[in-house]
Protein 1
Amino acid sequence: MKKILLVIMFILSAVTFSNNNGRSDVEQRVYDFIKSRVTGPAKLDMEEIYEAVINSSKEFDVDPQLIVAIIHHESGFDQFAESPAGAIGFMQLMPGTAKSMGVKDIYGISDNIRGGVKYFKQCLNKTKNDIPLALASYNAGLGSVLKYKGIPPFKETRNYVDKVLTTYNKKFGENVLVNEVEFKKEINAVFSEIAFTNADEGEIWVMIF
């Protein structure tokens, strides 16, 4: 009887593995999310989009579920999306930011996503891994987040953070809330003088004493 149960369990696990193509639970959720949102001719590039998200997220140690939530609200998975301000592609990179992230083809699927993930990782590092503040930095620039010691009072930025977090929490079962108190303490303790240049792209010079 035990042998029969073991055989059944082995078969079931093999079927599950086959259905997911070896993807982990997180990777499967990312794959399903992308599949449900990529439409039209872009469907042909779905596998490349998925691979770019997973590979870049592993490279920079970022949750790929958060990355697809960002892409969803940045560009709606439109490879050639352009904002009025000049942001381009899936991750809506400004040309200057893309260049600083080593992006060679800003319209390229892998290049654009990798550049965006790399930049978002920098935002996470600068905000002590506070996801809401990192999202605000990605949208409005790190300089603005530091200047206001939290999420800037810009309607666009606050709506952006709320929308990305709502998708991240509801679609992927996370529970990330906005908490600016600890970040304000960090700012007050560490930074005594901050000079801002081109804050829209998050470029700042910080003097630490």
Protein 2
Amino acid sequence: MNSKLKYLTTEDYKVLMEKAQVATYQQREVIVQEGRLSQAIYLVRKGMVRVERAASGRDVAIAFLEPGEVFGEMSFLEGIPTSAAVIAQEEVEVCVLNEHNLYSLLTSVPGLSDRFYQSLAHNLSHRLRQTTALASHLMRRVQIAPKYDVQRTGQPGQDTIPPELISETELFKENLQTIEQEIRSKDISEADAQEQINKICNMLISSLREQIICEPNIQNAIGTYLFRETFPFFMLSSFFDRAFRKPTNHASDSYITELLCQNEPEGDGHLGIYLDRWIRGLPTCLALKNRGGIITATVKQLGERWTPEHPMPVTSLASGKASEILDLYFQSSPPNACVTCVDFNHQDLSTAAGIAHKWGFRDRLTFIQDNIFLLAEGYSHIDIAPQQMIYSVSMANYLSDRELIGILDWIYDRLLPNGTVILGNFNAANPDRVLLEHLLEWHSIYRSAEDLEKLFSRSKFRSLPVTIQADEYGVELYVVCTKAWQDE
């Protein structure tokens, strides 16, 4: 065990260990409870422990500590309750230096007190530098994000909106108003009303797409015009309303998927539910609703070929509530897999952890709260064993090329030989792209198959063959690459 108490001599360390009590904890046993006053300092001797906070949720890790790491020192030094719980991730041995024995040594061994406190100060200073670097990077990342914010005034081309689009938009509004009157007076059946509304909306979006293709230099002005004119109608749809107000990061995909899976069509007024059914039937919505099945089927297929006795290790990045993984364990014959779910949203992780705990498969799942953007930049360190599969269905939609290459390198280093990576990314040819960007303000990074191939070639995967397939709706591309048995 390499001690993190940097300034202790070999003799110092020997003296401390002679006075320390060695405690053994089994997996999931609580070593230090959150909110309790620590009267000892702990050193991890064997195994790994995880750090949890109640605010992040039960069974959701915010950090891992390996042999040699120290914990409990802040509560010990300041005399205040601990800010987090420390729990055994596996069977661990911990050296416990209680208050009485420690102070006795510090006052009796010449120079030990200075070296001991200098070591603790060094550890705390290192953590502070890390936190400062993380905060600085997050601020830069937040400053980058507003490039996706759409300014709805002052767009070049507002005075030159194509007359054809103006006519189509006015016809759209007139037709919807006519159908609304017919629904009010019960002069039209529900099926006919839905068919006509679908046709009216599809024609408008088709016109928007054509005009943007013809006038790409003023596409933001065109999108803004249509947004202003149609917003009162589309906001009658419950899904449109919620999708418009979604989160602005990779959590949005998880949020939208949940809406599609858990909510039935609904809306306000006489038109709302019809508009809601129309938007839920768009290719993007259908693709997001069914995307989890692709991952579930892949994990199950890999699990059937997994021969070692221990469970197949799988990691999900930007996992959200990990519904596709939870679905695996609800099956009558779940695969022999152990899955690590990583996401920044502690509420989603906590929800998933609660379900795993309730249904008795928590031992097969590990939940880690961490920031994917920091991971891409090398600021965050997630301790996971080599994995047979690492995947993300949405992360690439929000990472720049440089960030995505950083993630690919991280994935490569953590895949077993013959391990597989699967990444989903919105297709540049997504048929709903103009609607998503200009009406829903859902701004993602779209890539073509060629774009994704180039990114993989610039990462540590280099010339390894990749398979890229679009889903049945043409909405998303899925990249599959298997790590070679030996590095080339």
Protein 3
Amino acid sequence: MDLREKLIHESLKLFSLKGFLNTSIEDILTQAGASKGGLYNHFKSKDDLFWSVLAEARRIWRRRVLQGLEEEAGPLEKVKRLLENYRDRYLKDVENIPGGCVFVTLSVELDDQRPDFAREINRGFTGLRDLIRRLLDQARESGQLRPGVDTDSAADLVFTGMLGASVRYGTDKSAQALNRSLSPLLDWLDGLKVRDGSPGEP
């Protein structure tokens, strides 16, 4: 890992724990074992560093949360795999995000203070919610969902459930609480399936 990568990596860890505004340049330098000159050789400012950290955070999210979705047989299974990956592979990633989901931390912190940053983070949230909606639409179109399931409302429920689980895990780092947050959502998704080839009741 070269200095630029180390600065990004350590900043991501700090942002997940303390947020962007509460992380000082000195915090980053100490954590990375770098000098100011070393940092400014790679980044013009703390804001410039933020964008690189955000890009790395997204790369990690995609690698951990989307892994294996293409292996699942149907779109509803893809949604469940996404939730399981989010729980088991992403939120528990203490090497990169010891404070929990960095996007949730930054979104809450920056909404009023740095709306330009917050808008970019919220764009990612919109993309996630749209992905869930597309998969649920595909499940409906393929006959996998029971009639009467509102995929728009269902996507909202899954998305807000993920964010709620992240907030809860960020406060106590309890794997048991995380399971309690997401297991009912996974069970609920199972309940949306058509059973034994019959459309069942809406």
Protein 4
Amino acid sequence: MTTFVSVAALLIALVTLGYAWMLNRELDRARERLDRYNRSLFKAEESIRTLRAELEDATTRLQVEMLRRSGDARFSPQMTVRAATLLHPQAQQVLAGFHLGGCSSCAVEPDETLAEICASRGVDEAELLANLNQLLGNGVNGVSQPQMVKIPNVHLDLAV
């Protein structure tokens, strides 16, 4: 009788071992599928992020072009840094002159408004806007055209 119980226990153990092996294989297949799905989701998320950035750039370009064509091309506090740099090619140099972008210690986000960066960094907003608006010419036929301005690369503060 002991032999019969031992053989039955051995058979049950083998069936259980086989079942555990099958479950382990199925778990491995499920992990592989999950990894594939995760990779696909990551690629899709990256594509969406790229498309959103392209959409933001295109939208900003269209807004700047509309400003130019309407003759209302002026730098304003609500304008983003991205729009400012698109409105005039030297706007980034003026911003860098105020330590707003241009190096790692004074970097700005392209979607921050000029008012936000002035407030957060203690820059006089009116002075920044006046300097930026000097870059814009009167234009032809009411359409404002950017003009290139010589910007000195050295700023001397001679306050005594």
